[in-house]
Description:
alpha/beta
Amino acid sequence: MTPAPAGTPSDPPLGLYLHVPYCTVRCSYCDFFLVPARGRGFEEYCGALAAEIGATSDTLRARSVDTLHLGGGTPSLLPAPLLGTLLDAARRVFRFAPEAEIGLEANPEDLEAARLAALCEQGIRRLTIGVQSLDDRSLKMLRRPHTARQALRSIELARKTPFRSLGADLILGLPGQDRAPTLAQIDTLLDLGVDHLSLYLLELHPRTRLGRETELGRLRPMGDDEAAGLYEEAADRLEARGFEHYEISNFARRGHRSRHNVKYWSDQEYLGFGPSAHSYAGGRRWMNRADLSAYLAGRGLDPGVIEDPQPRAGRGSEALCAGLRMLEGVDLEALRARYGRVIPEVGAPVLTELGDLGLVTIAGPRLILTRRGRLISNEVFLRLLERQDGEVSDSGAGDAVPGSRALS
């Protein structure tokens, strides 16, 4: 990996992301980089991933780490001892904070009691279970490799283990999804004691099976207005149960925010390892090539680094849009000091206009989306990034706000 500019131990802690690209099946909505799992090759891949971690430059080794997230793909496919080798590889290279958040994404079918205990023994303290739905018909349509019963059982078992935070993911806006049963699913998950819930509005990608089925008219997703109403009801229900709506798609009991994901939204630095993983440190952004065969051929030591050519202004626009996803919004003065004129001033006419429309509020230097602003966040972001001549700046705003959907 190309070394980043020199860092010091006094720099803010880094987050680490370890990508596991294997899945048993590609879900019908998934547009991520992954490969089918065949039950073989895990050892080779983990060896390459550990080697890439071990090749981290000396300047980045000087940084401490306070979050590590295993994502994918399906990291829970890896045997616990292999997950342990990856964590050990990271611990040999980086200085971990005493209360570092170490998290894992998992599928329900992988989480029997013995497996959960083994994950805890390896140091996993935050578990996020990809439930997506508690309706078997929807799960079949999504090509999820589990049933609603398995999802509920995995949460019940996980709640009995020492995980510090237990989270679940659900998708809203699915074809055929009804309001009352969906809200009841949320109640069920809360009653089971989850600490964190992510509610993602369905995104349709043309390269996915669900996208093609929709394009052909075989399936019809929920209408935008109906999806917006469902999202608002779900948010109200979660907040009434004591959950903090801390990011557009994410709700947490107090003290259970995803500290790792907050790094992405708040312009903090992180390193990604594995094919397709992204990194941001020392003023640089880069990604590894999304090519597992090439990654394995190079044994993790030649990940095919691709530098982000985006100018500083574009990065500032990304930081603005990502930060506005958070409950606290963004500090305009701090962002403007970092990125310059691409960040609007507190008194900018566009902010007055958005405020008059009830989409944003300004509290001192902080710009914050209202509830309505969150519902049509992409439209707000585009308005913020328009140039005075009416053209939209080349900001990469769409990439900066995954999971958001305009719901006017």
